[in-house]
Structures are given as structure tokens and as C-alpha cells.
Amino acid sequence: MPGDPVGRTRPVVVLVGSPGSGKTTVGETLAALLGVEFRDTDADIEAMAGKPIPEIFVDEGEDHFRALERAATAAALTSCAGVLALGGGAVLAEENRAALVGHTVVHLSVELADAVKRVGLGAGRPLLAINPRATLKHLMDQRRPLYAEVATATVVTDGRTPEEIAAEVAALLKP
Ligand SMILES: Nc1ncnc2c1ncn2[C@@H]1O[C@H](COP(=O)(O)OP(=O)(O)O)[C@@H](O)[C@H]1O
Ligand SMILES: O=C(O)C1=C[C@@H](OP(=O)(O)O)[C@@H](O)[C@H](O)C1
Ligand SMILES: [Mg+2]
Asked: Which amino acids does the record list as binding Mg(2+) (predicted)?
């Protein structure tokens, strides 16, 4: 691939961040802007499991979901040549953080107020199904250092449109 000295397939950029930071939404906008494919490990996991994420959590539990997420992350990092969005909890696994070393990783940062507004009652996000505000605060406090560890750049998303955020990420990617 262009930009990779030994010709491996790798994402142009990997998006990480809290649920509600806009990884999926900004990722789609950014991929269209750059004219490249968009991949989201959550969609890959649903395809792998043959069911939506909330059903995976109910039927097999979070540990099984995290195992699928590690497999989906490893596969996407070597097969996606476009924009790759990870799930908000992917950084919890040391294996995933190690796999991100050497990649262009943008942390879409969001404060609690905007994240809560965006995820609402957590539809489709089983971890946020009960008490979304307190749960999100806890997740964000736990994960903030992990996003910082893997990120090569951070883009603030609060109070901004997906188009503005995608344009800033695109500008960061210019050589
Ligand atoms: N910058 C933004 N401003 C307002 N709403 C947003 C923004 N980014 C995403 N959203 C909305 O917030 C919700 C969660 O966005 P999503 O892209 O699924 O986030 P993530 O993948 O990081 O969890 C969606 O309803 C989306 O339309
Ligand atoms: O934060 C998490 O642990 C999760 C975030 C979700 O993705 P988004 O960050 O895209 O909402 C999804 O992977 C799953 O519900 C678990
Ligand atoms: Mg998402």
C-alpha cells in the first residue's frame, strides 16, 4: 500500500475514543472525504457472530465479545486500507494496544456532557443500558489514559459537527 515501506495493507487512520465520541459517524464521513473504504470492528464482530452486539452480550457475555473484538481488531489492522473505527472498549486489551503501535491512531476526545447527549439511553450499547451517565463517566475515567497511550494525535469533538471533525482528521493525515 502507498505509505507502507514493505507493502503491507494497513489503515490510513484508526479512530479510538469513548462511546459517543463519534468514531463510527466521523469515520464514515472521513472515509467518503478521502475516497477510501470504511471499516468498523463492531460491524465485523456482528458479521462474525451473526447477531447484533447486544445479543452477543446477552447470549455469550462480555468476555466472549472481547475475544471476538481482539480477533476483529487484529484482522482489520492487516486488511483494512482505509479508515478503521474501533469499539470504545478495544483499548482495554493489552493485545490490542500492542497491535496499534506503529499505526496512525487518532483519539476522538469527548467530555461527559456531549457523550451522554449523543448515546442517549444507550440503544445498541449493552454496557450503557442501565444508568448511562454514571456508567459512561466510569468508563471514560478508566479508559482516558489508555486512549492517550495508543493515540498519535487527539481531535476534540465537543460542540463540533462530524464534518468539521473529519476535516481536521484529514488535515492531520496530509504529509
Ligand atoms: N460531532 C457530533 N455531534 C453531534 N452528534 C454526533 C457527533 N458525532 C456523532 N454523533 C451522534 O452521536 C451518536 C453516537 O455516534 P457514533 O458515531 O455511533 O459514536 P461511537 O462510534 O464513537 O460510539 C450517533 O447518534 C451520532 O449521530
Ligand atoms: O465501550 C465499549 O466497551 C463498547 C463500545 C461499543 O462501540 P462504540 O464505542 O462504537 O459505541 C461496542 O463496541 C460495545 O457496545 C462495547
Ligand atoms: Mg461506533
From this structure: 24
**117 assigned binding-site residue:** no
Using a 6 Å cutoff on CB, does residue 132 contact ligand 2?
no
Distance, in Å, from the CA atom of 128 to the CA atom of 149, rounded to the nearest integer, reads 24
Task: Report how far residue 18's alpha carbon sits from residue 2's, in angstroms, rounded to the nearest whole number.
Answer: 30
Task: Considering every ligand atom shown, identify the ligand nearest to the alpha carbon of residue 91 and give its number.
Answer: 2
C-alpha 33/C-alpha 98 separation (Å) is: 29
Residue 44: HSE in the Cβ half-sphere, 13 Å Cα cutoff: 23
* Residue closest by Cα to atom 2 of ligand 2: 89
Say if the ipTM goes beyond 0.90: yes
Decide if 23 contacts 91 (C-beta within 8 A).
no
Q: Which domains, ranges and CATH numbers included, belong to the chain?
A: 13-167 (3.40.50.300)
| Banded model confidence at residue 122, pLDDT cuts 50, 70, 90 | low
Q: How far apart are CA 146 and CA 92, in angstroms?
A: 7
